[in-house]
Amino acid sequence: MMTSKSIPLLREIITGATGMVGEGVAYECMKSPLVESILLVNRKPSGITHHKVTEVLHDNMHDLSKIEDKLIGYNACFFCLGISSIGVSKDDYYKITYELTMHFAQTLSRLNADMTLCYISGAGTNINGSSNWSRVKGKTENDLKLLQFKQVYNFRPAFMKPTPGLKNTLGFYKYITWMFPLLRPIMPGSIGTLTELGEGMINTAAYGYNNDTLDVKDIRTMARHQP
Questions:
Q1: 214: Cα within 13 Å, side-chain hemisphere
Q2: Alpha helices in the chain (DSSP H)
Q3: Quick one: pLDDT at residue 39?
Q4: pTM for this entry
Q5: Which of 16, 36, 79, 117 fits a disulfide with 9 by CB distance 3.0 to 4.6 angstroms?
C-alpha cells in the first residue's frame, strides 16, 4: 500500500548523472510534474541542460565541505553513483560503494532533516551473500537506514532496458536490447526498464511505499502508481 499523503514537489539531488542509470533517472525527473528542481552533483560535466537543472562539479566526493552550502534545501536524493565490481579490487570497491556513499548520505542527512533518500543497489544484494559486491551493497543498504533521513528506500533493479536516445548507455546493451520483449514475459521479476526505475523512484519519494526495499516488481508497481 502506498501512503495517501504526498509530500511537496520534489527538490532533488541526483548523483551519478554521467552514468547510464543516473542519466536515465535524471531524464525522467526532468519530465515529471512532481519534480520542481534538480541539483546534479558530478565530478565532470554531464552535458545536461534543462530549466529545472543546476549542476555542481566537485572532484572529491569523500569531502563535501566546500560545497555543503549548495546541498541545503532539498527534500530528496536519488543516489545513482556507483561502479561495477568487475576488475576492481575489494578495497577500492568498498571505498566507493560503501565509504563514499555513507559520507555523502551522512552529510545530506545532517543538512536536510526532511529528506528522502533513494539508493540504487542491485538485485542479489545480501549482507550475508557469497559475493563481495552483494555483501558490501547489503551493508550499505543497512547502514543508510540508520541515518536521520525522513525515509530511506533501497532500489534493486536487475537487467534494465535502456532509455532510447541517451548518451551514456553502455555499449553492450545495443547487442542485447532486442532480447527484452522475449525475456520480460518469462522473467518479469528480473527484467525492467530504465524508464520504470526513474518513474518508480519519483513516485516512491513523493508518495511513499510499504517496503523500504524495492525489487523489479515493486519498481514496476511504483512506476505505474497514480495517486
A1: 31
A2: 20-31, 90-94, 101-111, 132-144, 173-176, 180-183, 194-207, 216-223
A3: 98
A4: 0.91
A5: 36
pLDDT (tens digit, 9 = 90+) per residue, 110-160?
999 899 999 999 999 999 988 999 999 999 999 999 999 999 999 999 988
Please give the Cα distance from 17 to 24 (Å, whole number): 8
The Cα–Cα gap between 82 and 40 comes to: 15
Cell numbers found for residue 144: 543508510
**Euclidean distance between CA atoms 164 and 182, whole angstroms:** 18
The cell 541545503 sits on which residue?
72
- Residue 34: name the closest of 14, 4, 9 by CA: 9
Contact 79, 118 (CB under 8 A): yes
Count the neighbouring beta carbons within 10 Å of the beta carbon of residue 186: 8
Residues 6+ apart with CB under 8 A from 59: 43
CA dihedral 73, 51, 200, 173 (to 10 degrees): -130
Strands 76-79 and 159-161: unpaired
Query: What does the alpha-carbon distance between residue 199 and residue 189 come to, in Å, rounded to a whole number?
Result: 17
Here the cell at position 155 is: 532500489
